[in-house]
Structure formats: structure tokens, C-alpha cells
Amino acid sequence: MSSPVNVPVLVKRLPGNDDLPLPAYATSGAAGMDVVAAEDVDLAPGARHAVATGLAMAIPHGFEIQVRPRSGLALKHGVTVPNTPGTIDSDYRGELKVIMINLGQETFAIRRGDRIAQLVIAPVTRAGWVEVSELDDTERGTGGFGSTGGLSALPG
Ligand SMILES: O=c1ccn([C@H]2C[C@H](O)[C@@H](COP(=O)(O)OP(=O)(O)OP(=O)(O)O)O2)c(=O)[nH]1
Ligand SMILES: [Mg+2]
């Protein structure tokens, strides 16, 4: 089995965060690197907070990093990332923050060092607009937003 390519990403620990582990893949097949909180936050039900990670980075041009929720936090506590997938641009040099929202019923305690989200690096494909006055006809046409029918895919 071939190993996935590792894209080198320059990363800088912001002052006071030398003790925190860098984002890391939990298993050899993991798509996302778990990233840890650099601060303590008590997230009340309905509240949201941009949680510090203590990290800044320089993603290579042509790549982005996506910030995604952890399914365990979402399922067990209703704690997730409202802007998922968060977009970290290759030209961003500020602190990586993870926006967390508590959709559960109880206050959720985030503690420094807790694995709060996962980071997925992905290639960026950019569009170039080609402006026209007419578009081609298609089977779908202008139908959308449920135009193909209801939920069930079963016959009858
Ligand atoms: O979950 C996130 C999302 C974004 N960012 C940082 C990195 C990203 O490059 C920058 C801008 O993000 P985005 O484009 O999503 O936000 P915006 O509201 O459009 O702000 P801006 O006007 O700064 O682009 O903010 C984070 O740290 N965490
Ligand atoms: Mg933006």
C-alpha cells in the first residue's frame, strides 16, 4: 500500500504554546489531523466561540486547510463547527481558530489540550468565469430544491 503524499506546511507555535502537540493524524489512514485547543472555554448551550489553537501557518500556494468537526463531539455533546468546513487560506498568517458551537443542552467544557476539531488539507481548484448570454438546455433545466421528488428512493 502506498503512503499518501505529505504536503509540507510551515507551522509556528505562538508564544506560550510550546507544550501543545501539533495537529496530528490519530491513525495511519486518518484524513484529518486532530487539532487541540490552546485555551479553556466553557461553552454554554447555544453559545459559540472562536477557540484559539496557538498556531499560525503558511499553507503552500494551491492548497487550503479545511476545519471540520469531530463526529464524537457532535454526536455525544452536540458540539460542532458551524462554518464547516472552515476555510484556511494559503495566505493567512493569523492564528488558526476553530469556531465551536454548542447545540446540546448542557455546558461543554473545552480544556487546553483537548482535541476539538480536525484539519484536512486539500488542493484548490480555481474557476475562471466565461461570460455568455445563453446557457445550454439540460434535463434538469431550472429545477432544483426538491424538484426531483420526495425522500424515498424505494419503488411505490
Ligand atoms: O474556521 C476558520 C475559518 C477561517 N479562519 C481564518 C483563516 C482564513 O484564511 C481567514 C478568513 O476566513 P474566511 O474567508 O472563511 O472568513 P471571512 O469572513 O470571509 O473573512 P475574510 O474577510 O477575512 O476573508 O480566517 C480560521 O482561523 N478559522
Ligand atoms: Mg473570506
TrEMBL record:
Its cofactor is Mg(2+). The lineage of its organism: Bacteria, Pseudomonadati, Pseudomonadota, Alphaproteobacteria, Sphingomonadales. It catalyses: dUTP + H2O = dUMP + diphosphate + H(+). This enzyme is involved in nucleotide metabolism: it produces dUMP, the immediate precursor of thymidine nucleotides and it decreases the intracellular concentration of dUTP so that uracil cannot be incorporated into DNA. GO terms for biological process: dUMP biosynthetic process; dUTP catabolic process. Keywords: Hydrolase, Magnesium, Metal-binding, Nucleotide metabolism. This is Deoxyuridine 5'-triphosphate nucleotidohydrolase. Pathway: Pyrimidine metabolism; dUMP biosynthesis; dUMP from dCTP (dUTP route): step 2/2. It is an enzyme of class 3 (hydrolase). Its EC number is 3.6.1.23. Residues 137-156 are annotated as: Disordered. It comes from Novosphingobium olei. Residues 20-149 form the dUTPase-like domain. Gene3D superfamilies: 2.70.40.10. SUPFAM superfamilies: dUTPase-like (SSF51283).
